[in-house]
Protein: ATP-binding protein
Amino acid sequence: MDPIRNPYAPGAGQRPPELAGRDDELRTFDVVLERIARGRPERSVVLTGLRGVGKTVLLNALRSAAVRAKWGTGKLEARPDQRLRRPLSSALHQAVRELGHSQQADVDQVLGVIKSFAQRDAGPNAKLRERWNPGIDAPAVTGRADSGDIEIDLVELLSDAGGLAADMGRGVAIFIDEMQDLDAEDVSALCAACHEISQASLPIIVVGAGLPHLPAVLSASKSYSERLFRYARIDRLPREAADRALQSPAQEEDAEFESAALEAMYVATGGYPYFIQAYGKVAWDVAPGSPVTAADIAVAAPAAEAELAVGFFGSRYERATPGEREYLRAMADAATATPEEERDDVESVPTSAVATVLGRKPQSLSPARDALLKKGLIYSGERGRIAFTVPHFGRYLRSVG
Structure:
């Protein structure tokens, strides 16, 4: 079929043509926005899931919903090598601008607090050229959000931004992707700030997205975090939603999939949104015409898998050292050694089973395991067990030997 009309979008964080299977999350968030705008109590939101399930896509869709509600929004992506002050300052700066508050003096006051919060990152005695400027023209407000204690400063910062939004009967939403990569001190401060603004009924929320162990990261920081956030696990799509993700875009281009082709696609992709887009794109290109058949899927599968092996799996595998790769392969082998009735959806395995495969003591493997955890290639959903953060990664490792 015509490759120019190919509707599928297998890009990182790129919104697919049909956002199937996420209607409940979108409806719930609309209710959250409206409740907060009316002064009703609500919790901030945390999305968790494996890579490739569409967390970033959903995060962006939720942000779009906030924009439609005329909220002020800002977004940042957490990185292990960066503290929170600068990216959060940029996100809040954008959110304040989006609010469009009519009283410029009030806006300048809050912008000055944001600037003060950002510049405190350089230290109190830093020279002017060493102070990062978030692009704010308003003068920094001394004595507000600039104590150097991130917890105190964050509470003051978000309180001021929330007060500005409350004046307009709207809210501010800050969206944080890869939230599990925040520094531990920043996580603690963020939880404390969310707690304070919730108690003050200010219209400001944090919407975070991260890997499955993010709730454990938050809980380790503040014991009350499990009551502070509304957690939503984002998983692979059920069959009906997966079919819709393929069929709806095809029908928009006057094409369709046979029922047997849809069955074959679900078996191949496991219902994971990124894989659906990747396989769908290749299947469209190889199919001679509509409808796409199961035979077309059989032809497309090797090409789709080869592309995933390079761009999705291989790029992550290359980040690991030789010792870490050995650990990853042992995880894949340990999963196959687990009786089928005892396996879970993510093929998690005991750390002791990995040690058994390698013929080593578990303690000697701790450095490799910890390094892989920090790189976001594996996660620990419960004590003593680990799993890949990427679906089908074990299958990929077993295929490459």
The chain has three domains: 23-233, 240-317, 322-400. Residues 72 and 96 are 6 Å apart (CA to CA).
